[in-house]
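The instructor's notes for this session suggest beginning with a concrete chain rather than abstract definitions. Hand out the sequence below and ask the class to guess, before any prediction is shown, which regions might be ordered.
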Amino acid sequence: MKNLEQHLSEYAKYHRDQRNIYTHYIGIPLIVYSVFCLLSKPAFAVHLPLIGTINASPALFVWLISSAFYIKLDVKLGLIMALITGAMVYFAQPIAQYGVGTWLAISLGIFVGGWILQFIGHHFEGKKPAFVDDIMGLAIGPLFVLAELSFELGFRNALKEEIERRSGPIR
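After discussion, reveal the predicted structure:
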């Protein structure tokens, strides 16, 4: 399995234009949220001792698996991702409560909007999206956005330097 630096560096090779990265700051969270909206229906009540009743859905299972993956790559970034995506799962549940037509219209509208931003960014970049060559790009994209934001805030400088050494600087 690739480590954090390898995954982010491979993804970063397709994202060296700052305008592309900025479109990803909005586009990727929209896409992730829309997927959780889509996966929040159907949901079924599950009673857990000591916790109570929770709504279990495919979104919850995807969240658990993706959180474990991110935490395995990097504990700090993984825990932050788990919190952010956990909030997305929580806020996706009300969307799933709508009727099928409204639920699909909202979820797919958000999904399409996110992808439009992605393709605008890749137009600036002049490169295809990373997932075209490696399907793991779909899972690494959200972590890349979090890592890039952390770099802009002055955190994880060693990680930033390693990614730039492997992938080149941002233009």
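Then share the key points. The chain has one domain: 4-167. The beta strands are 44-48, 52-56.
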